[in-house]
Amino acid sequence: MTRKIAISFAVLVGLGMIFLGARFLLSPEAAEAGFGIRFNDRGDYSFHYTKGIRDIFSGVVLCLLILTKQIKALGITLLVGTIIPVIDVLIVWSKDYTGIAEAMPHISAIIICLVSGILLLISKPSNQSL
Hints:
The chain is mainly α. The chain has helices at 2-26, 28-35, 46-67, 71-81, 83-93, 100-122.
């Protein structure tokens, strides 16, 4: 049961990453505000597009690991991938105009990735699929 819950969280993280990435590509200014920073150098959205592609890639990797039932690899990827929201929260907190509200999505991602990754690595597979 714990394993299924962790996999469910991983599905949500993967789909969420794809959504966030698409948002950075399609609506960069709104995504920027949701991320918790301000950056727009006269309409240059290079940062936004780079982040969007990174997020889409991360989400697709998680979803593919789930679809191919590579659960140990999924757990490792979630644990190692925790570095992304950790650095993101440090970036957000480095700005003098941000606070806990802007950091909460990143803190939530840290907790979800750590807990899900650990649970996937320590849980034993059941006789059922996934």
